[in-house]
Amino acid sequence: MQKFFLYVRKSTDVEDKQVQSIEAQLTELRAYAKKEGLSITETIVEKKTAKIPGRPLFNSMLDRIEKGEASGIISWHPDRLARNSVDGGRIIYLLDTGRLAALKFPQFWYENTPQGKFMLNMAFGQSKYYVDSLSENVKRGLRQKVRNGIYPSLAPLGYINDPRKKIVVVDKKRAHLVRQAFELYAKGYSRLEDISTFLAKEGIFSRNGTPFKRDRVTFTLSNPFYYGHFQYGKEIYAGKHEPIITKNLFDDVQMVLNERGRPRHKDHLEPQPLCGLIQCASCMGITAERKIKRQENGNVHQYIYYRCTKKNKAAHCPEPFIREEQLDTQLSALVEKYSLSEDWAHQLLQMVERDEKDGAQSSAIVVQEVKQKNAEITAKLQRLLDSYLEQDIEREIYLAKKAELMSEKKTLEEKIINLEQRQNAWLEPLREWIKEAQNIGAIARNDDLSAKRVIAKKMFGSNLRLGARMLELKNTIEGETVLKNKGETQWAAFVAAREKLFSSPEIPESMILVAPRGIEPLLPG
Q1: pLDDT > 70? residue 94
Q2: CATH homologous superfamily for 159-260?
Q3: How far apart are CA 215 and CA 209, in angstroms?
Q4: Which residue stretches of 106-174 are H helix?
Q5: Taking each helix axis from N to C terminus, what angle separates 342-389 and 427-438, rounded to the nearest 10 degrees?
Q6: Residue 433 and residue 439: Cα distance in Å, rounded?
Q7: What does CATH list as the number for 3-145?
Q8: Percent of the chain with pLDDT over 90
Q9: Cα(85)–Cα(296) distance, rounded to whole angstroms?
Q10: Of 2, 113, 331, 374, which has the highest C-beta tally within 10 A?
Q11: Alpha helix locations (H) across 315-341?
């Protein structure tokens, strides 16, 4: 009596998919074997795709058939056995050599004859064509989703996949944490490890339960998905999902990533953190080099020195070198002078809140007036349409008047959007500046030279000079300190207020924080 292997297969190893397919195959095949009087040696259930060769249970079954443990296979359809030319060819070869005597399918006719093997080969070819065609259809569908702005893959951190609508939506529990991570790193004094620690404290870990590695943090901070675009097939597309951050914040993070980069093993020629920030007081820029000193007792000491680049060989620069520790001390002292005190910060934040409330009230009045005008135009359009339908006015007059009203309506709608978006747009950057100015003291006392460089570049621009081992700000007109910070805005105003307070202590702080208004006489100085 011939012995058969009963072979069933589903295309995925995920437990909750195609479960009914396996159960249905087993039920139907066992009933079929009983009806035909076939002896089942073993039932083999495999959870692998047959698109490519390499199914372990399938290959083991054929090896056992070659050893004579069974001489036949019962399966639901030939496509359960093979969807590729390698596995299909091996089955036909076993039939040709007589190792495989019979194949039984409830829904497919087969006999071990030349005609039967020809039909079997066609069935295998059709199965391969089906899976190849299905793959192309799936890829075409994915390309269309991408063109429509729908991300066709797993949602990144801060988003979730909506299984009902087949789209990516914002994860309300984690989106704000991702935004905070971007904001922290954009400030320039947080490391990748600090971002990983921040996320871990908020309960965000990798799949294996450990904090994010540096590469994962870098990938997250470099993902354009968070500002509304996404990458698919090495190409950037505009997405329809809701952005978590702004493009400006993303660009700030990329600038910090590019500036700080990944840590590498430094050699003596590698630029140090303060290079490019300071210029020599006599001639060129400042460079740094690493020196190693070996003592007779075997101790080895490493030092970093900053000095003039001395690119002009014809002229001798008189400025001496300075140790990194000394330069760090001077830079820290210079930066800390511009730290915003707690009382000033508190008063400024109170002013911001007051201005925000006043601005919101005044803006709300203006917006309401514009909305009222827009509603009036909508009513005019409806009356115009009614008059045209009643044949009270000619078509030409109707079209001309409608175009005029529609143009006015669009102008008002855009005005409403601009008013609502920009009413307090300047307040949030001011809040960020106040927080940054408050944190200057902590940066100055920290050992992170990269963070000091970032804040010093913002405050002093290219006005730092090193001469006679002394770090100073470049003075220009009438001895006044010059600070260049993207148009000399917050930092310049803050420094001017500090200098005014120190030079005229009789002036109350409240008169410096808030400029005099009304017809009061101007303050001296």
Answers
A1: yes
A2: Putative Large Serine Recombinase; Chain B, Domain 2 (3.90.1750.20)
A3: 16
A4: 114-147
A5: 160
A6: 10
A7: 3.40.50.1390
A8: 17
A9: 74
A10: 331
A11: 324-336
